[in-house]
Amino acid sequence: MAKQTVDIGQAPNDGTGDPLRVAMDKINDNTNEIYRAVGGLGNDTLLNMVNSDQELQVLNVHNKISFLLDTEADLYALSAGTYHGCIAHVHSTGALYYAHGQWRKLLTDNANNDVTSYADSLANVAYTGMLTDANNSGFGLLDLDGIADGTIGQVLTANGNGIFEFKDISLGASAINDLTDVTITAPASGEVLSYNGSAWVNAAAAGGSANTFGTISVAGQTDVVADATTDTLTFIAGTGMTITTDAANDTITFVSTATGGTGGAANTFSTIAVAGQPSVVADSTADTLNLVAGSNITIQTDTGTDSITINSTASGGFTPSRVTQAVTSASIADDAETNIDFANLGVSYCLYSVQVDKGARVRIYKDDAARTADVSRPIGTDPVEGDGVVAEFVSTAAETFVITPAIFGFVDNRPTENDIPVRVTNRSGTTGTVTVTITGLKLEDA
Questions:
Q1: Which helix (H) or strand (E) holds 25?
Q2: Residues 18, 60, 28: CA angle, nearest 5 degrees
Q3: Are residues 191 and 150 in the same domain?
Q4: What CATH number is attached to the domain comprising 323?
Q5: Integer Cα distance of 364 and 382 in angstroms
Q6: Cα–Cα–Cα angle for 425, 428, 432, nearest 5°?
Q7: Statement to judge: residues 100 and 131 lie in one domain
Q8: 329 and 438 fall within a common domain
Q9: Helix (H/G/I), strand (E/B), else coil: 220
Q10: Are 272 and 288 in contact (CB under 8 A)?
Q11: I want to staple 439 with a disulfide (CB 3.0 to 4.6 A). Which of 168, 195, 324, 390 is the partner?
């Protein structure tokens, strides 16, 4: 903006000068331009001193423009994004910074000297070279000049005067820093330095990095936990037990020596012989003998009396007998129904009596399909002939129905079904179970 001059007229109060408002507006414009030139309009209005032609815009500015901050904390408190492109000098570090995404410090040395050129003097060693390539030029490091590479098994040592060299190592028996007694050669793969009680030697890394169990757990017992990497687990033979070790084969054998009837090594039959059949021989002391029921055979065990009962169910030797069986239903609401089954009356029978412990409706069928098909038939409606209903009984209280003459019944869907299917309805007036007791002559076993 060109400088604006206030027209004051030809003479005082002659009316030819600028009006007061116009004069003050020119003064404000001139003042703002000066403030911008010295960066004095505050933090929200920054002065960009470079125009589109990459030329400095601020000319003829005689005031000092300062970029000085006392500490880095003062600098970092300013937003680098807001002051993008600005530079700043921090007095406490003696360094220059510029804002680009963050405040970035320009390179300087520790003595505040000019940095005329820069090269990383450790680059050859730290990034691409060998340790023996390093030297003490400009560093004050110990003298590494002239170090030749050592051989396998050697270590780099210092002589106390700043000279390094590769030497063989030897470790004494008394302490690891005693290098007088035993010479240790370069370890082979998988070997470690080990103290055997009298000397330091190369030894196989026994479990050095292999998986091991630090805790031995036994159900119901306190865990045995290793206290150190060299801890020893000791097995102790208890009563009726021997433990034998075989160092050559890395095995431990446990043998029971118990005798008598305490269960340790009591007398047992290791072989079961059956005439005309191969013998059954136990494969171990904990082997199990299984008894299997063949055709027309049932096997029943009694753990209380330690007995096994074997029965024949062959139909050729069956004798009809009178059987009574009571079955209790699940709890059902009044006028609700449920299924129950009778397994002890055989698959053919003569029905002698039916007893209920409360008001109930009892229907007996030839198979499950007939029971399912008859579910919705109301009381008082006779079943259709051939529908599979063997008998039906209805009571309003506890009652016993004696059947004369006896009714013959059977289970039709054989051998899939072996039980007599029954449907019971609660007619007692309250929710509860219904117990049905049937007595009959068992004519044919399942």
A1: helix 20-37
A2: 30
A3: no
A4: 2.60.120
A5: 14
A6: 75
A7: no
A8: yes
A9: coil
A10: no
A11: 324
The torsion angles phi and psi of 443, rounded to 5 degrees, stand at: -100, -30
Looking at the structure, tell me whether residues 92 and 156 fall in a common domain. Answer: no
Where is 421: in which H helix or E strand? Answer: strand 420-426
What's the domain range around 80? 68-105
- 8 A C-beta contact, residue 357 and residue 428: no
Distance CA 146, CA 93 (A): 39
Q: What is the DSSP string of 109-165?
A: -TT---------TTHIIIIIS-GGG---TTT---B-TTPPP--TT-EEEE-SSSBEE
Instruction: Answer whether residue 41 is part of any domain.
Output: no
Instruction: Specify the DSSP class assigned to residue 315.
Output: G
Q: Distance (Å, rounded) from C-alpha 251 to C-alpha 234?
A: 14
Q: Which two tokens stand for residue 228?
A: 């150190």
Cα–Cα separations (whole angstroms), residue 444 to 339, 349, 414, 420, 436: 23, 7, 12, 12, 22
Structure tokens at 408: 């013959």
Whether 275 is in a domain gets the answer: no
